Amino acid sequence: MKKLIILTGAGISAESGIKTFRDSDGLWENHNVMDVATPEAWEKNPQLVTDFYNERRIQLSKSKPNRAHLILKELEKKFDVKIITQNVDDLHERANSKNIYHLHGELNKMRSSVDENLIYKTTKLEYSLEDKCEKGSVLRPHIVWFGEAVPMIDTAIDICKEADILVIIGTGLNVYPAAGLVNYIKDNTPIYIIDPAEVNISNMPNITHIKNKATIGCEKLMEILNK
Ligand code: NAD
Question: Which atom of ligand 1 sits closest to the CA of residue 13?
Fold first, then answer.
């Protein structure tokens, strides 16, 4: 089976009702990301950060995978599919995709604020600063905030090196190191981009840009790949 590597960003979840950054002028649900998604924000105002991620979890609980997420699952019938996602939602999981790698963390996990190895999967939507890890420190969202290291990047690089086909869906390719992953594919690997807007990718051979929203774009992709 050919290895189909898929890099997803906020745009694939837009049609499930979860807003992207770019479409909100760099704001994330009316917040400046620097106020809610950085270690400094957590240091300065942990209550605001906790409330922000509580809202994100509640919003996610009311959202469902869309046709694009479901098509990526269907592609597993013919391809060895691996999804590297920048998203913190769980819509790929809820579409039953098998191999999902979260570069930027997950909304439905919390972790100790003193020991990054103490990670807790949760179905609880709302946390308070009273919720502690087993070592007694406050629980923080298991999210890679701006300015933090991306522990999953080496795994993602290895996956990209093996790609027979790379598909990029709903990401402006502006956030590093994720945006640099395209540089690790083998020469002449076909790349399909699904995004209604231009994305920040250097001139590479073999790029096909399907300029549609993710749901329609993924239908078109499936047609092309099934030929
Ligand atoms: P981005 O907001 O920078 O870019 C979103 C891209 O999606 C844009 O190129 C836009 O043209 C495209 N887009 C918008 N609607 C689309 C649609 N219906 N179908 C296909 N494409 C569409 O997002 P990013 O590149 O993922 O990077 C921002 C960071 O924001 C990531 O690190 C991510 O963790 C975080 N984020 C995550 C979520 C989520 O988990 N769903 C939501 C917002 C932001």
Answer: 41
